[in-house]
Amino acid sequence: MADVVRQEPEGDVTDASTFDTGQLGFMCGIEVHQQLATGKLHSRQPSMLYDVTIDTVPNDWPRYARKLRLASGEGGKVDVAARFEKKRNRSFVYIQSPNSGLIELDESPPLSHDQEALDVALTVSAMLEASPVGAVQTMRKTVVDGSNTSGFQRTSLISTDGVLKTETGDVGVDVLCLEEDSARKLDSVSTANGEQVIYNLDRLGVPLIEIATSPDIQSPEHAKETAKALGRTLRDTRRVRRGLGSIRQDLNVSVACGDRVEIKGCQDLAWIPRIVRLEMVRQVHMYRLANDLRSSLDLPQLPPNRDLDDEEVESKVAEAVANNIPLDCIDVASAFTSCESRMVKEGLEQGFTMLALRLGGFAGKIGSKTLDDDGAQLPRLGRELAGAAKLAGVRGVFHSDELPAYGIEEYHVQQVRSDLELGPADAFVLCLAPEWQARLALESVGQRARIAFQRIPQEVRNVVIRKGAPDDGTTTPMRPLPGGARMYPETDVPTILVGQEHWQRITENLPMRQEERMKRLEQTELSEDQCKQLLSRELDDLFFDIHAKKSKAWATLLLENESVHPDVLSCILSVREDGGLTREGIEQTVEHFAQSKNIDAKDVQNFAKENDLIPADIGDLESIVEGIVLERIDFVKERGMGAMGPLMGVVMGACPGVDGKEVSAVLRTIIQRHS
Questions:
Q1: What are phi and psi of 154, to 5 degrees?
Q2: Within its chain, how far is the Cα of 221 from the centroid?
Q3: Which of 162, 172, 280, 267 lies closest to 226 in space, CA to CA?
Q4: Which 3 state secondary structure label does DSSP give 425?
Q5: pTM (two decimals)
Q6: Model pLDDT for residues 68-125, shown as the tens digit of each residue
Q7: Are 128 and 163 in contact (CB under 8 A)?
Q8: Over the stretch 462-506, which tens digit does the pLDDT of each residue have?
Q9: Rounded Cα distance, 303 and 230, in Å
Q10: What is the rounded CA–CA span in Å between residue 330 and residue 326?
Q11: Could you give the 3-state DSSP secondary structure of residue 304?
């Protein structure tokens, strides 16, 4: 083990830039989930999403109420994340969209894999130089948040041991899987018996490619670079969905003094370096806090590297901490009967109770909201405790380090301290909610407070989102990191053999890379901007395959009319190139045929004739221009080429329907001849 990860972490938690990834023993990997532009994975339903909210869902879409039941995995063990979810006492309502049927409702067995989706997954595997498995075996992966009606997600391992090449360095690809996307959450409602979550089933079953990298990412900036490279590789297939929410990145981050944390919600690539840095800072802060708390109880210090932990020592520490923080919740509602806080008064009037939990020795260690120089909340135990409480469905908790505040006066604080028999070094946490929920929330707080003495837990965290974007790059706890008990074989989907012939067909027909596509475009007469636009909108194949002439006019027509069938655009442009349509009439003609899918030249010619869009038969254009110039010869000799602008209007008036470019070229030649 290198000396660097035996050292105490160096750096100031108020400034993330003071930390060095090498000195911290930084490790990072990425998981990318990309929706495919194919049918649903196991139901043959179309993979379309409906633009509805909880307020605009059609009344005729059926709704089904469910509760998930706790079950053990194939090995007989209950997954830790599933056990926690059971305590939350949540119920679910599923809205059946038109593209969801009995399979999405878990009322019918799934079908085998969508063949196109499987081929896309194998194609990406080949692009990443990964080795395909000999047989695709579908597994069930326990899902604890109700986003799958069955309580599990179907996932299939497709390939392993790939490599993603980036400028900073190669990043290994551990696994590539093909799996179902989850249902879309529309709303959640608090009830007296727990939270009710409402899901739309339109997204459930949409195929996802999941790519998990090795922890080869060298820095926060490299994490962003890796995510971009993975996204580019997936888009190169031209068979993935585009748009908001179609691709999701999860970050796996750890430092030597912390542990692996999976961060979800990293939608905006620009935020990835900041999110990673703040997680590094949080882990260092919690490590330092753990040793500070241990000192207060004369407990052995945590070593600066998790690999140096002594299991026997940590077991004794955990026992001592559990004795110091009993999970005894005390009803202190009587201390708040005179409280003028609107939140407290309304809660008590609804029949809620105010429970308190004693945290011995925590005074001043829970902390209050403080920002770093970039406006991000500094890590503090209070936020971790609040995050743990919110998982029980409550809006939050009060703790003594931040009181008096929120309408809670010093009198109430002292009354609670008296009721709990606290000393000067002790702290407390309050929760106002229905008794069962307040008790669950404070038990979660107590467990999190106990963990504060330990190495940070392996868990899933979520980026704090405000108004659809990251708030400041910080995260909150979401659920425990799932264990091996969550995965077991799916017996309803047959195993698929990946034969050599199938794999060879995939490898011999790989899509062009973005760099190759750009080189192909650069060999045409197009401008740099047109090349980039065609590439970014994935229109370059249409540009080359549909129309004979690879002209700027064809590129412009494609870029400005993406909703019109390309065959229609090509037909209109062909008539224009053959002289049957004025240049100015193209837009009107495209608008007329915009909803058509199959037209011929005669259709365009008839429309042009009916609407006076056929170029005028003006005979010898050059002689007409010559006459106009000679009539104004003095003006031409005086102005030279400066006469071009004024005379263009005169010529165009004399030659209605003639192409302006053609007039300009003839006029330029004749002016040069006479000036």
A1: -85, 130
A2: 18
A3: 172
A4: coil
A5: 0.85
A6: 776 665 566 665 556 666 666 789 999 999 999 999 999 999 999 999 999 999 999 9
A7: yes
A8: 999 887 788 999 999 988 777 666 778 999 999 999 999 999 999
A9: 36
A10: 11
A11: coil
Interior angle at CA 495, CA 489 and CA 499, nearest 5 = 140
Sign of the alpha-carbon torsion through 310, 315, 319, 324: positive
Q: Tell me the two tokens of residue 152.
A: 């599990």
* Cα→Cα distances 595→14, 381, 589, 590, 601, Å: 59, 59, 12, 9, 16
Q: Domain limits of the chain?
A: 3-295, 310-454, 528-610, 621-674
Stated as kind and residue range, the H or E segment containing 188 is strand 184-191
Single out the residue of 380, 369, 364, 382 nearest to residue 430, CA to CA: 382
Query: Which superfamily does CATH assign the domain made up of 310-454 to?
Result: GAD-like domain (3.30.1360.30)
Distance in angstroms (rounded) separating the CA atoms of residues 484 and 79: 7
| Preceding peptide of 615 cis, ω within 30° | no
Q: How many residues does the chain have?
A: 675
In the sheet that holds 91-95, the strands lie side by side as 63-66, 91-95, 194-200, 184-191
DSSP 479: E
Measured distance CA(340)–CA(478) in Å, rounded: 33
Tokens of 657: 């329907």
Distance CA 335, CA 398 (A): 14
The label of the residue with tokens 């690999």 reads 307
**How far, in Å, are 132, 173, 175, 428 from residue 214 at the CA level?**
17, 6, 9, 42
Question: Which tokens sit at 594?
Answer: 């915009």
Res. 1 pLDDT band, cuts 50 70 90: very low
